[in-house]
Amino acid sequence: MTRHVGGAPAAGREGLRFVAENPTRPGGVVAPLARHKLGVDYDTAWARRYPVRLARAVVLDDFTRPVLRVALSPRVIGLEHLAPVQGPMVLAANHASHLDTALLLSMLPPRLRHRTIVAAAADYFFDRQWKAVVWSFGLGAIPMERSKVNRRSADLAARLINDGWSLIIFPEGGRTTDGWGREFKGGASYLAKRCCVPVIPVHIRGTRAVLAKSSSRFRLGSTEIRFGDALTPDQGEDARKFVARIELAVAALADEAESDWWSARRRAAAGTTPPFRGPEASAWRREWALPDSARKDQHVVRERGKHKPWTRDD
Which of 50, 202, 229, 301 lies 20 to 30 A from 260 at CA? Predict the structure, then answer.
């Protein structure tokens, strides 16, 4: 006869206990670590669902864009270069401030503004849960390795581009420390070649004086966004050569911002565009060689006393 305890068969109670309790682990067996959910592993699919996209569009159009128009007085040049591109594109821009992303995204034409994602540094913008949620919602950001091409993040970006999303990427991998550009990484060229989409070079000027790297002080200022001609890889051109051409195109836009369209075009045709990364020299020589506007920005940064050497976490 089955013994009853508390009105239930003992065998049944033991079975229920086995199901409800956590399983035991033999001694000496190390428990596997829980799967990491941040960094490049953070799932941003929720941020591309229609209700979230609609909410982001409202915030972007009715708050972010008007505020930035007042605070940054942006001048947008070269939008005509975007018009001929019917499908998705990769927008490759220089990087001087955390304001660059919101400014560039909010100044895009409506057909692109709400169908563009942003490649954001996985180790900085997706290292904590609240940051991952904020940037995924606010900017449609996806995590991207900035020091190398990571297969997981590259596959996600490529899949979204193939689904019709355009991509904003900062090929330098981080913000400028001294007003000069940094070497472009290969992510933009790799994705453009893989997905067969054009790259639009973009130069942003003025944001560093408004909110510099390693500074928490914000000041009103004037900014410029300049779009260049669409670039596509030549026959047989590999990603390394293509990214060098993208960097040169951004350098030509920077030259145009400091001079004028015709002079910059003549120098680009002659191969004498001022170097994007500046001279290989000491810090004071590099600062002395800065273009006028960048030198003014450097002076603003120094006055605030907030400038410090670049670290990986920046």
Answer: 301
Please state the pTM of the whole predicted model. Answer: 0.81
52: domain CATH number is 3.40.1130.10
pLDDT digit string (tens) for 186-214?
A: 899 999 999 999 999 999 999 998 987 76
CA dihedral 29, 30, 31, 35 (to 10 degrees): -140
pLDDT value of position 60? 96
Can you say how many angstroms the Cα of residue 14 is from the centroid of all Cα atoms in its chain? 55
Please report whether residue 99 resides in a domain.
Answer: yes
Q: pLDDT band at 25, cuts 50/70/90?
A: low
**Confidence band (pLDDT; 50, 70, 90) for 21?**
low
Residue 103 DSSP class: H
Q: What is the domain range of residue 88?
A: 44-304
Residue 3, pLDDT score: 52
